[in-house]
Specification:
single chain; mainly alpha; extended
């Protein structure tokens, strides 16, 4: 795609109110600042789209003329202190903008009606929502992120096949708020079909607002527990039926507690792995320094002696003044997998 770029664009000028001006109300002062901020946001969007086009041109040029390894493109990014992640995000933004324009939904001049975040939300929305937003922008309406999210929630709540017909119908009749139903759809999408059907059954029996909130929380806890459990190594030591365990916790109205417990277990194991890595590295460094030092370095030996409380098999760590000066004592013992035994239940 060939595009022309003005080499000397006019400088952006904004009429900001004087903070020292007494004859202007606070409401008017903030309104004028909000208007100026919105102009900057739209200017920023145009800049981001053009940056994405520039980066795409650099990348595609190298693919055409080089070996396709991307070394020249990465060098170009390094020279301008742009991360690879941000570069590809800008390229994706440029692609999305051109897709909206190419499909005829959005006019070129209508891009100025969007804030940056509103445009990003629009590019990620379903085609039906993109069409509605584009029509509003083409008519001269200013598009905000809140407006895009509202339309997305309304469309999702009224059309999603993950919802039972009773919920979709009541949403279309404005008996249920889309801002409450839409999160339910997002949580249901994370679950397998069998668990979705169990929750849909509850929604059919009671298609009311309180039930929707309860089912949304239940779906969130199930997905949170399932996702965290996949990383918990303690669960790999025996044959556990997590699904039945979640059913039992749900029966006790303790599914949220189980989700938090599994999440904390994942966090604790990750912390232990980091602790073990740091402990091994500190022990190696302390040993090397001990070999290099001697009687001529008494102060260095004192430092290494103090580190012994952290690099040995038994660690003693102060919890600080907030914990009353208490210390935690940990003993690290490396064992082979076949030596590990589950701790006794007390």
């Amino acid at each position: 795609m060939s595009s022309s770029v003005a080499l000397d664009p006019p400088a952006i000028e904004l009429d900001l109110p004087d903070p020292e001006q007494d004859d202007i109300s606070t409401m008017e002062f903030l309104a004028r600042l909000e208007q100026a901020w919105a102009l900057c946001d739209r200017f920023d969007l145009q800049t981001e789209i053009w940056r994405g086009r520039i980066l795409r041109a650099v990348r595609d040029r190298e693919k055409r003329g080089g070996e396709g390894r991307g070394a020249g493109f990465l060098q170009w990014l390094r020279e301008r202190e742009i991360s690879k992640t941000r570069a590809y995000a800008l390229i994706q933004l440029a692609d999305s903008a051109e897709n909206l324009l190419a499909e005829g939904m959005l006019e070129e001049s209508s891009v100025n009606q969007f804030s940056k975040r509103a445009f990003m939300e629009t590019t990620q929305a379903v085609p039906e929502v993109q069409m509605m937003i584009s029509e509003a922008a083409n008519e001269g309406q200013e598009i905000t992120r809140k407006q895009v999210r509202r339309l997305t929630d309304e469309f999702t709540s009224a059309t999603s096949p993950l919802l039972p017909e009773e919920i979709r119908q009541r949403t279309q009749e404005n008996l249920l708020p889309p801002k409450v139903v839409a999160p339910l759809v997002r949580e249901l999408a994370k679950l397998p079909e069998l668990q979705q059907e169990d929750l849909r059954r509850a929604l059919r029996e009671e298609p009311e607002l309180d039930c929707i909130k309860d089912v949304t929380s239940t779906a969130r806890w199930i997905s949170k527990t399932t996702e965290a459990s996949e990383a918990v190594r303690a669960f790999q030591q025996g044959e556990l039926n997590l699904e039945k365990a979640m059913h039992e916790a749900q029966r006790l109205d303790a599914l949220g507690l189980l989700a938090d417990a599994v999440s904390q277990a994942q966090s604790l194991e990750a912390s232990v792995l980091k602790l073990h890595t740091a402990w091994r590295r500190l022990g190696g460094l302390q040993e090397r320094l001990w070999v290099e030092s001697g009687s001529s370095t008494p102060y260095l030996r004192d430092v290494l002696g103090a580190l012994q409380s952290l690099s040995g098999a038994t660690l003693r760590v102060s919890l600080g003044e907030l914990a009353g000066g208490k210390r935690v004592r940990l003993q690290l013992v490396e064992e082979a997998p076949d030596q590990l035994e589950p701790p006794p239940l007390t």
